[in-house]
């Protein structure tokens, strides 16, 4: 009998169609990764999976072997494709590489979903396309060559397509073309597989007509999919992706509000007024530098929102990891700005975690000895265009910001983007003053201007200097109520910006407070340059700046010498109790002190044993190959055990008896006994020895006998099979029995 060819045209056709479908599906990651390394890694994984599946299909190994070898291939080639920095010579995996691959298979999915796209196409994040390629290649090709249903193998790349869509972004590139191409290739593949089992037509004309008709139908379906899908209901809406439902593992509430400490930048505080905070170079003259954006008011402080309140189906607004690029959120001129942190900024614990950034950054690159740790701990909030460095900035830290500098001004008739994001209870206490100060103005724009004009013209500036100590810092409900109900408003940037933002929200315009600075002519930012302003959310999605010069009096305008206890209570509103949850004043809050700090490590006992260095080296080098060999042996032995169990329990009693004799033959062949095919059971028994002849005759009597055997008959026969298997191995060496257990001879078809 001729030997079956290792590779057929059907194998090649199925592999090609599967590769095309996978490439189309994986193309959805173009907005999630930078460049195309993710695609090459995924295709490499696909090729490895195809080879594993084809090898198992050719030798007719069970599906469990396909799965086991796929896992082995993941570790064997993962060092070269994913963990090149850790693999030996960038190719050979060691123990550390294996551990990293295990971690990547679990953590990379979460890291991708909690990082602002596009992410860097290198390192652990490449494990995702690699795993998808392995699974698609091994699973899809095994299904294609083992299942007769024509459309069955399309399921695997279809699952990859769905996975890429869920793991990707809400705005992928050309989704209509991707969907149409996938449907077209899937239809062609299904029709090709169906044609293999169809009776061939002898009439050439009919065959040509059928081919032309099929091609026309496939083309028509593809064209309809590409053209009509964008107009279907719901298609133009927000695309459902998992990153909208995953909260980044970073809690901004752990960090104090930088607005609370604003007074230390003022002149009379005599702290940071004349101290150099940081220096910027390359920033267009007159541009602003943002330190922190504060879009949540708790009744105690303005702080940065955590993003947990985002509605399902809308993008999360928390602080996330970023890749090599940050999506731009505005239009304007580009600039490359270099920032150097000074000692005064690094020593201020309430702001040294916040990264000063100009404009709308599109990339942030750290340099110096702290570049690695800062890059790992850097988080960015795309909706507030502000960043934070969890390990805090140090004196002399330098970084470069690629940014888009765009100043958005408030139009004459501004329209809000939507309802304010703050709960109404946060600004209820300003309602009375908002109505009084806005007067009889009819539209939102003129109301905001009227409130700003009242504060600027009737208010006074005080930073609590000599003779003005009654004007306290802070912007809690209590402090702002005193500010509102006094005969005239008195305060600094902190109070004016806080009140104006709350009144804007009360009037229906979403607003937030920004702490930042306008650098001096030499690019140096001192405490005197720090200020707070307000941004409002316009209907086009942009945030427009309202500088403090619009709603705050000049700093030279001091309050009258009137006791601050005299209040104007005629239209004061009821003050709700402040929020009982107080944010931490700093990360050095006593509630967060590490209980282990200051404790000396326990003294090791004399009997404590540590792994010698030479043993660690041996385990690191020899461990992975040994584990690989052990895994392969386990798969082979386990596969035979599963086969034996299925033969013993599956089917009718007569079939189980026949399978029992086949188990004896397989055992003999594994031990090296040549048992020719095509012989009867007694003839085969003569090859095995006299002990096998009674078992062979019992099988023939049971299978061909007049009475139907029972389950008890099959169970009794299998006991004799077990005894005979032991006798066959009793006369051979232990090494030969081990080789028989690992032999693949009986896992292949017999000819």
Strand content: 5-15%
Average per-residue pLDDT, rounded, comes to 84
Overall outline: elongated
Please tell me the total number of domains: 3
Distance between the termini: 7 Å
Radius of gyration, whole Å: 37 Å
**Helix/strand structural class:** alpha+beta
Query: In DSSP terms, counting alpha (H) and pi (I) runs of 4 or more, how many helices?
Result: 21
Number of strands: 19
Question: Low-confidence runs (pLDDT<50, min 5 residues)?
Answer: 231-236, 309-315, 564-575, 577-609
Main pleated sheet = 5 strands, antiparallel
Q: For the largest beta sheet, what order do the strands appear in spatially?
A: 10-13-7-2-17
Helix content: 40-55%
Task: Give the helix/strand layout.
Blueprint: H1 9-26, H2 37-58, H3 63-81, H4 95-113, E1 115-116, H5 127-146, H6 155-167, H7 175-196, H8 204-228, E2 276-281, E3 289-294, E4 296-297, E5 302-303, E6 321-322, E7 333-341, H9 343-347, E8 354-355, E9 357-358, E10 360-367, H10 371-377, E11 378-381, E12 386-389, E13 398-405, H11 431-438, H12 444-458, E14 460-461, H13 477-485, E15 490-491, H14 493-507, E16 511-517, E17 524-526, E18 530-537, E19 543-546, H15 548-551, H16 613-649, H17 653-670, H18 681-688, H19 693-704, H20 711-730, H21 734-742
Parallel strand pairs: 1-6, 14-15
Antiparallel strand pairs: 2-7, 2-17, 3-9, 3-16, 4-5, 7-13, 8-12, 10-13, 11-12, 16-18, 18-19
Give structural notes.
- By secondary structure, the chain is α+β, with helices and mostly antiparallel strands.
- It has three domains: 9-232, no CATH class; 252-551, no CATH class; 618-747.
- It is built from 21 helices and 19 strands.
- The chain has helices spanning 9-26, 37-58, 63-81, 95-113, 127-146, 155-167, 175-196, 204-228, 343-347, 371-377, 431-438, 444-458, 477-485, 493-507, 548-551, 613-649, 653-670, 681-688, 693-704, 711-730, 734-742, and strands at 115-116, 276-281, 289-294, 296-297, 302-303, 321-322, 333-341, 354-355, 357-358, 360-367, 378-381, 386-389, 398-405, 460-461, 490-491, 511-517, 524-526, 530-537, 543-546.
- Strands 10-13-7-2-17 form a five-stranded antiparallel sheet. A five-stranded antiparallel sheet has the order 9-3-16-18-19. Strands 8-12-11 form a three-stranded antiparallel sheet.
- A hairpin with a 4-residue loop joins strand 4 (296-297) and strand 5 (302-303).
- Helix 2 (37-58) runs antiparallel to helix 3 (63-81).
- The protein starts with 8 loop residues before the first helix and ends in a 9-residue tail after the last helix.
- The model is unreliable at 231-236, 309-315, 564-575 and 577-609 (pLDDT under 50).
């Amino acid at each position: 009998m001729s030997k079956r060819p290792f590779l057929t045209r059907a194998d090649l056709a199925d592999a090609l169609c599967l590769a095309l479908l996978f490439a189309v599906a994986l193309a959805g990651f173009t907005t999630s990764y930078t460049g195309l390394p993710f695609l090459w890694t995924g295709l490499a994984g696909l090729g490895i999976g195809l080879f594993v599946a084809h090898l198992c299909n050719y030798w007719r190994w069970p599906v469990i072997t396909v799965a086991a070898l796929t896992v082995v291939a993941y570790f064997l080639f993962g060092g070269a494709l994913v963990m090149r920095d850790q693999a030996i010579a960038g190719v050979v995996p060691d123990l550390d590489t294996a551990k990293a691959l295990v971690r990547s298979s679990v953590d990379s999915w979460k890291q991708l979903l909690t990082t602002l796209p596009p992410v860097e196409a290198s390192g652990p994040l490449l494990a995702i396309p690699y795993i998808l390629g392995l699974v698609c290649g091994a699973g899809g090709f095994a299904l294609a060559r083992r299942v007769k249903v024509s459309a069955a193998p399309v399921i695997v790349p279809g699952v990859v397509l769905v996975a890429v869509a869920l793991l990707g972004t809400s705005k992928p590139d050309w989704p209509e073309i991707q969907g149409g191409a996938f449907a077209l290739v899937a239809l062609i593949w299904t029709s090709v597989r169906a044609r293999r089992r169809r009776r061939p037509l002898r009439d050439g004309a009919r065959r040509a007509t059928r081919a032309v008709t099929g091609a026309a139908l496939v083309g028509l379906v593809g064209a309809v999919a590409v053209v009509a899908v964008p107009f279907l209901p719901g298609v133009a809406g927000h695309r459902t992706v998992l990153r909208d439902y995953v909260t980044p593992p970073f809690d901004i509430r752990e960090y104090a509000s930088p607005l609370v400490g604003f007074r230390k930048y003022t002149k009379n505080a005599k702290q940071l007024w004349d101290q150099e905070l940081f220096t910027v170079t390359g920033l267009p003259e007159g541009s602003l530098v943002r330190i922190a954006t504060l879009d949540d008011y708790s009744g105690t402080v303005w702080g940065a929102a955590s993003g947990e309140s985002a509605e399902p189906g809308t993008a999360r607004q928390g602080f996330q990891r970023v890749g090599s690029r940050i999506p731009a959120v505005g239009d304007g001129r580009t600039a490359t700005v270099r920032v150097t942190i000074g000692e005064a900024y690094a020593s201020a614990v309430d702001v040294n975690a916040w990264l000063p950034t100009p404009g709308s950054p599109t990339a942030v690159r750290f340099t110096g000895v702290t570049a690695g740790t800062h890059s790992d701990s850097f988080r960015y909030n795309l909706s507030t265009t502000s960043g934070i460095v969890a390990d805090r900035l140090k004196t002399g830290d330098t970084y470069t910001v690629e940014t888009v500098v765009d100043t958005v001004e408030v139009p004459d008739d501004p329209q809000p983007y939507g309802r304010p994001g703050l709960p109404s209870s946060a600004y209820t206490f300003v309602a009375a003053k908002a109505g009084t100060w806005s007067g009889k103005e009819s539209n939102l724009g003129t109301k905001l201007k009227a409130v700003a004009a009242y504060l600027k013209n009737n208010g006074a500036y005080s930073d609590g200097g000599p003779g003005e100590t009654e004007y306290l810092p802070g912007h809690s409900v209590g402090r702002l109520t005193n500010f509102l109900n006094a005969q005239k408003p008195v305060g600094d940037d902190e109070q004016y910006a806080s009140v104006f933002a709350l009144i804007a929200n009360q009037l229906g315009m979403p607003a937030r407070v920004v702490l930042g600075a306008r650098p001096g002519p030499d690019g140096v930012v001192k405490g005197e340059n720090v200020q707070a302003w307000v941004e409002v959310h316009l209907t086009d999605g942009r945030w427009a700046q309202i500088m403090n010069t619009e709603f705050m009096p000049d700093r030279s305008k001091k309050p009258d010498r009137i006791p601050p206890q005299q209040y104007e209570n005629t239209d004061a509103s009821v003050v709700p109790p402040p929020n009982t949850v107080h944010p931490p004043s700093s990360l050095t809050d006593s509630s967060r002190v590490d209980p282990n700090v200051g404790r000396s490590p326990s003294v090791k006992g004399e009997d404590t044993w540590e792994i010698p260095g030479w043993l660690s080296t041996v385990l690191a080098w020899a461990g992975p190959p040994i584990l690989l060999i052990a895994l392969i042996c386990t798969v082979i032995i386990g596969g035979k055990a599963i086969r034996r169990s299925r033969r013993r329990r599956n089917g009718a009693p007569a079939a189980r008896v026949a399978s029992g004799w086949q188990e004896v033959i397989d055992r003999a062949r594994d031990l090296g006994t040549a048992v020719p095919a095509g012989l009867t059971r007694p003839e085969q028994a003569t090859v095995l020895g006299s002990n096998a002849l009674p078992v062979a005759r019992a099988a023939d009597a049971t299978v061909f006998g007049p009475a139907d055997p029972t389950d008890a008959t099959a169970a009794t026969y299998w006991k004799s099979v077990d005894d005979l298997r032991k006798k066959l191995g009793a006369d051979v060496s232990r090494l030969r029995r081990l080789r028989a257990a690992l032999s693949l001879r009986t896992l292949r078809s017999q000819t």
